[in-house]
Design a protein that fits this description.
This protein is mainly α. The longest helix has 35 residues. The chain is globular, with a radius of gyration of 23 Å.
């Protein structure tokens, strides 16, 4: 909740800066926001450098953890793959639960990256909405998200991660649907409704996906399996956004030549995102929740 508050506050200030420097002074706005990002990156690096991770390995006589060559020299060799990444990947994909987590993550990545990355430009460009309005609505809706996130966490503990994650995805599904219906004549109500639904969905979507992933990964190998899962899904998400960007360019050229009522490429990408998200919700219900019921 605290992180969301800081993020949306900075985004609101950034939007005000971009509106205040619109026109001939636009480069000044980019310079100010770019400088702020640089400052935040430096602050973030400093904050991470101050963190002390809990000790998890064996200690030597000096009280220091033994890693790498030092570990291999003084400790018995580990029987499990000796850190071979390909062997760890084969071992991970040999587990049905890991394959389920991987499939769920790819479905989510497909749903999100084929639509969401293009919605900010859609609001600013085709819908002609000012930065400040977008950021104010986002700020207010994220205050709602902050308020209900603790409640959603308690419900997740009570009813199960997959159960609540499924319903949080419904909020993001409605967000895609409202943006698919948004055109310049109805932009303001559709964007407001979509942003509210997005805030409700994101109150648990990120937490829920991470919780489901942890439940499905092997307890003794969660670190390496989570690393494999995130690395592969990250590359996949980039590819989806790249292909979706090419599709967006193609649709914009085609739709501009069609007679009659104007349609926008982002309406199609949001409809596509909603379709994939519906498949994700069904997969959660029919596969992941079914597995949880069998374990119980």
């Amino acid at each position: 909740a605290f992180c969301v508050f800081v993020t949306v506050t900075i985004m609101l200030l950034s939007g005000v800066v971009m509106d205040a420097t619109a026109g001939e002074r636009q480069n000044m706005g980019f310079t100010l926001n770019g400088s702020m990002i640089l400052l935040l990156v430096v602050l973030n690096a400093w904050a991470f450098s101050c963190m002390k991770e809990p000790r998890q390995g064996e200690l030597n006589a000096a009280g220091k953890e033994m890693h790498g060559k030092l570990r291999h020299k003084y400790l018995p060799k580990q029987p499990l793959h000796n850190g071979n990444l390909l062997a760890e990947m084969r071992d991970a994909f040999g587990k049905a639960d890991f394959r389920m987590a991987f499939t769920l993550t790819l479905l989510w990545q497909t749903s999100f990256y084929c639509a969401a990355p293009f919605n900010n430009s859609y609001q600013l460009g085709e819908l002609g909405m000012p930065f400040t309005f977008i950021m104010v609505i986002g700020f207010l809706c994220n205050m709602l998200r902050i308020a209900i996130t603790p409640l959603m966490g308690k419900l997740g503990d009570k009813h199960g991660m997959a159960f609540l994650y499924k319903y949080s995805l419904v909020g993001i599904l409605l967000y895609f649907i409202f943006f698919a219906l948004a055109v310049p004549s109805n932009a303001y109500p559709m964007v407001i409704l979509g942003t509210v639904c997005s805030a409700l969905g994101w109150s648990f979507a990120g937490i829920g996906l991470f919780g489901v992933q942890l439940e499905l990964l092997e307890e003794g190998k969660r670190d390496i399996q989570l690393s494999i899962l995130l690395a592969l899904s990250g590359v996949y998400g980039f590819l989806v956004s790249f292909v979706s960007g090419c599709l967006l360019d193609f649709l914009q050229k085609v739709l501009a030549t069609l007679p009659g009522q104007r349609l926008y490429a982002q309406q199609f990408t949001n409809a596509l995102g909603a379709g994939f998200l519906l498949i994700t919700i069904l997969y959660l219900k029919c596969r992941v929740q079914k597995r949880e019921r069998m374990i119980e």
